[in-house]
Write the structure tokens for this entry.
Amino acid sequence: MITVENLSKTFGEVSALNAVSLDARQGEMLVLVGPSGCGKTTCLRCIAGLERPTSGRIRIGERMITAIEDGVFVPPEKREIGMVFQSYAVWPHMTVFENVAYPLRAMGLRGDEVHKRVLEALKLVQLEPLAERYSSQISGGQQQRVALARSLVGAPKLLLFDEPLSNLDANLRLQMRIEIKELQRRLGFTAVYVTHDQAEAMAIADRIAIMEKGSLRQVGSPRDIYEHPANTFVAGFMGTTNLLQGKVAAKDGAGALVRTASGVEVRVALADGVGPGDAVWVSIRPEAMQIRAGQPAGANAWPATIRIATYVGESIIYRAELGGLNVELHAPPSENYPAGAGVTLAADPRRCILLRE
Amino acid sequence: MELAVTGGVTLLVLWLVFYPVAWLGWAAFHRGAPGDTGSWTLENFALLADTSYWRLVGRSLLAGTGITLVATLIGVPLAWLTVKTDMPCKRLVELSAILPFFTSTFIGGLAWIFLGNPTNGLLKLWFGLPVNVYSMSGIIWVTGIYMAPYMFLFTAAALRNVDTTYEEASFMCGGSLWRTLTRVTLPLILPALLSGMSLVLVISMGIFGVAAILGFPAKIILLATEIYAKTVLTPPNFGAATVCGLTLMAITAGLIVLQRRILRKGSYALVGGRGFRAKLYPLGRWTPLALAACGLYALLAVILPGLVLIKTSLQPYPTPKFGLWTLDNWTAFFEKADLLQTLLRSLYLSTFGATFCVVLTAVIAYIIHRSNAPGRRFLEQVSVMPIGIPGIVMGLAMIWAYITWPVWGSIWVLIIAYLTLFMPYGVRALGATIVQIHPELEESSRVHRASWLRTFVRVVLPLLRPGIYSTWILLFIIFIREISAAVLLTSINTRLFPVLIFEQWTEGYLNVMSAGALLLSLIMLAVIALFKWGFRVDLSPAYR
């Protein structure tokens, strides 16, 4: 549906995007996520036509909207898209109705048609009663819905979201997340959604594209990315993880054995493309580690000392020392170990992920 | 579309600024009067070998520096008192410090002649004060008190931006008020202060009205008045006038470059970013003294000059006495066709001129701050250049440039000159408004299928409206009171009101022209009042 090929953008000497290629299928919600300055917003603005890339091509369906090498650059207003901005950008000098009617009027529609479609769009976001209000008279959450209605009203080929929830308070953010997702399911629109919040990305995405320093690091379903990160950056950015650095000590049909500098041995189930002696990382999620009393026995069980135990309600977060390294693990609150206690930590080799970089 | 508009506007601005200036440069190297195709020469520069010429330049620099110092010594303490202390009656003090900004140094100068002339000045006759405004110190004093509002506004704005915690930290470290002021507050606002001072110096160097009415009787000639004398008085010497103009412009342009450098180097991040309520310094037993100082300024800059003009305008001839009251001076403006016509012409020019200027500068400011058009930085630099061109120099340059054009002798020459000279004020004031509009409000329009033009008309213009109103008023007031550029460009058919006041004054119609000066002030105040209370426009963007 939308295809981005080799998109690059430089600001003077600074390279904001390096040959990024992406696509989103019809009806798919693609989320661009990454730390600030990773280029995700620049990428979105290039798709919107608000920024002119230095090189690359962008297609919506079969229609070429940007092909810098061929001199094609369709201005934003001719791209048939809708966009929800971080600041909402609800025009303060127009009523809610006029805001939502704006794209239709710009398309040349008049009269009843405009009226009908605006009310339909407002109904989608449950804002019909507020049609005659000005933006100063409605709440931040309601402005957000106006922005959403405005982006949908013109039946755009593609919807763009630029950190739309970052100005809302925590509860409203969770609620809007679900509403946007439901709306997308119901209407089946294709969307590219930018956020820096990995939890939001996981919750809302059909597929996630992770960016860092202007380049794409991994694209996949939320589950895929969380459970099989491509590298240490992705593993660390998408949720918390423990990264153990070491060398491949042995490799066999059941995976590989990785030994850290301090002598901790970790068995991993999947070890494609590495051989003995290679420097690697092992990522173990906090919830993939079990804690128990007593001495370790068997593979992937290590002696450790609890340093800090933090009770957070649904679980206890332990920070422990394991072979000279600090690790974090989440355990059910039913078990309770005090700081300083000697314990055994264990992890299933299938949940110990080998990373090459 | 965007590119075409940017290109067109840039060409127009380049034309407005450089066409007359280029002619001035050409004229410096040629013989003859404007309109002649004089032959090439260097003899205009023979002037530079003359020591009396350099004394003239030195005198002008002295006057400018003196004016700037007076304005600073009045404006800065007033600003500190109103912004940083718990002094009562702040609104009133602020009003008296801003009011002179909205009238004119020229009108103030006229009033001060009645107050401080050496023979029958009221200060001498009533209080025995040995003052003489027909002197260098007179020019410096009178212009200085009317330039003080600029320093007041600059300093007040800078002080408002200083995060109070910087000062509180100094007090917490045991610093006294004096130590805090000199070691913390002053260094923090120094860049703003210096940039304000250099701007005041630029304006003072080019000031014509006061320098003429106070300087000519005492034979004190400054560069601005020398240009006038060499152009208007017989026999004219355009070559010498042109060299004076170029000298003056070189000084003012140099100062502007200096000001830019100060601003660029010294922009401290002053704003704390928190919504803090500034803690006000308690004046305690010094309150009466502070109020008295503010009152004295109001008395000297507004009240006394106002009263003396009112008194004189109601009397048939200049006299220190009371009595002989008459309304003839006022009714003259409505009975004599030429006076009324001049007044209407000034209103007409200011209304249309301010409107053109707002439209042009709105487009310029929008391109500078919001477009990606290449060359927008260049456009910015060119459009604020006229700040460094004194009005009288612009007037002289316009004579050279447009004397062979059909617009010559019409009011359009004046509109073109004003448009060029005051473009920077519009670009600044509107630019300040535009940067406050969130860019996403426009981007949202573009994405939702509106073209560049539609976005400008439907989104940008409505959001700019408050800024447009206040900028329009600012320009209207500047246009209607302007005299420096007009004095060389008006003919009998395009006489403007301030020029009329000046010419009739020098011919001795003091009482009628007192009424004229008051009338001009009243018009300006009426326009401000109409917009402020009638249309409820917030005027602060214009001068903050």
In short: Chain A has two domains: 2-235, 240-355. Chain A touches chain B at residues 48-50, 52, 75-83, 85-87, 89, 91-93, 102-103, 106-107, 147, 150-151, 154, 160 (CB under 8 Å). Chain A has a mean pLDDT of 91. Chain A is about 25% helix and 35% strand.
